[in-house]
Amino acid sequence: MLASRPHGEPTQDNFRTEQVELAQPQSGEALLQTLYLSLDPYMRGRMSDAPSYAPPVQVGDTMVGATVSRVLQSQDPSLAEGDVVLGYGGWQTHSLEKAAHLRRLDTDAPVPVSTALGVLGMPGFTAYAGLLEIGRPQPGETVAVAAATGPVGSAVGQIAKVKGARAVGIAGGPEKVAYLRELGFDAAVDHRSPTFREDLAAACPDGIDVYFENVGGAVWDAVFPLLNTFARVPVCGLVAGYNATSLPEGPDRTPALMGTVLRKSLTLRGFIQTEFVERLTEPFVRDMTGWVADGSVGYREDVVDGLDNAVEAFRGLLRGDNFGKLVIKVAE
Ligand code: NDP
Predict the structure, then answer these.
(1) By residue range, what is the domain housing residue 307?
(2) Do 19 and 111 share a domain, yes or no?
(3) Residues with Cβ < 8 Å from 207, sequence gap 6 or more?
(4) CB of 134 shorter than 6 A to ligand 1
(5) What ipTM did this prediction achieve?
(6) Which pLDDT score, from 0 to 100, does residue 217 have?
(7) What is the pLDDT of residue 289?
(8) Residue 82, exposed/middle/buried by CB under 10 A (0-12, 13-18, 19+)?
(9) What keywords does the record list, in alphabetical order (predicted)?
(10) Is the beta carbon of 313 within 6 A of some atom in ligand 1?
(11) How far apart are alpha carbons 299 and 268 in whole angstroms?
């Protein structure tokens, strides 16, 4: 449960555990046991009551989150005991959900069911929709993305490659950089290196045509001068600032930003993935399933055992401790 709203980085004190009697499912509902809980950067926004595109979790309520769960009891003909489903059960061991809100997962598929929370789920969809609808990479263009080993960034770079573009990944630390090369990124740069700015410039000799913005902060500062005329910037996330409690020090750089947007005819376009769900879910499922199956898109999961470790794992997600899609394994 959210016990209080974090100021800056969340702490254990902002959460508490409660035990309750399991309720019985009513008609149209199912009682579920959580197998995997997805931890995602957007959850920091739900912990706060600052204005957002979605209402915050109320203090005293269960933290929200996407889950892969097993059906324990069903009061709906569409689901049977033992089915494994994608739902939105939140940070809890069991949940009661409406069957109409659940999607049954294929447990015989060649990929683990937890991928419904990552490459084949919301983060993969975010990459697909944001890159193809807003970034529109053309063959030979340079696409740069940060948080590039995470589920959104790794899919962005690999889809860019499928579309014939050059992919430049930005990540924290040499291990992550090495993994990006394994995934087939054309270049990979460590944003924690003291030579990051020069390294990024060297990795983008023809400038940047599409910058898929996942982080903001110092990475944006390094990318900005490299943007080409007519560059597109899908603004997907600004994770570097999610725990910020004040604006960065001046001077105000808005005039320089707006001047460059004007002179270079840049397109900066924010989006929330839900905007595209109705129109693009079908092509996403078809394309991404195919790309994962034929090896064009690889993925990595960072599985942390035990719901009790969710708060610490979430803190690590905003610092870059995770290496791949962060999921909590709640039960076998
Ligand atoms: P990740 O698993 O990639 O986790 C976040 C990563 O951000 C960290 O692992 C870290 O990687 C990186 N990071 C954190 N702080 C900094 C920093 N100061 N500078 C540079 N990198 C930093 O997350 P996701 O793939 O799930 O999400 C990526 C982004 O997409 C987030 O901003 C998220 O909010 C956004 N998003 C937006 C959606 C939308 O609809 N608009 C939907 C889904 C996600 P590293 O160690 O490499 O630095």
Answers:
(1) 12-118+300-329
(2) yes
(3) 142, 226, 227, 228, 231
(4) no
(5) 0.99
(6) 95
(7) 97
(8) exposed
(9) Oxidoreductase
(10) no
(11) 27
